[in-house]
Amino acid sequence: MSVKPAAFLKISAALAAAGFGTLLIVSGAAAQATSSRMKGIQLSNDKPIQIESDKLEIKDPESKAIFTGNVKVVQGTTTLQAGTMTVFYKATEGATVTSGDADIDRIEVDGKVFLSSGTQQATGDSGLVNLTEQTIVLKGEKVVLSEGKNVFVGCQLNVQMDTGAAQLEACGGRVQIQLDPKSRKQQQN
Q1: pLDDT tens sequence across 9-28
Q2: The domain made up of 2-188 is a member of CATH 2.60.450.10
């Protein structure tokens, strides 16, 4: 099944469980930047999810839906954009992608991934949201996390969704951090 141009769907609350992770850039010691608790970018189970793309291909026998071309996912104040997004569903008897009752196993995004919520943003080349393991991995030659003027750069961000624990890896190089001292004063107020 193929739907063109601008497939616009409201997906069941199962996609909301993806949470797309939680990112909070904390100001403080440089050591905190590479392993920290992150919260802020998250989806809410009580708000509808809207997905737009140039094309949607549903493959019920393979339990997946493939969104391609200018993919944009919005729920509340959270936005995810990518070139492609593949949603893999758990194979459950009688559940189909088109009926909206299939549970999501994982979501893969690729092609200039952008994730934002309020003042918090993350960018990378590809990402994986694994609902079974409750993890998010954002990868790229340059993964950038930012909140206001605080900027963290690495090549891989790992987030544990249930705890909010996150780690930014350097992948052979070094993690780069730019902190705005004014943001620390604002957090303390």
Answers
A1: 223 222 333 333 333 333 22
A2: yes
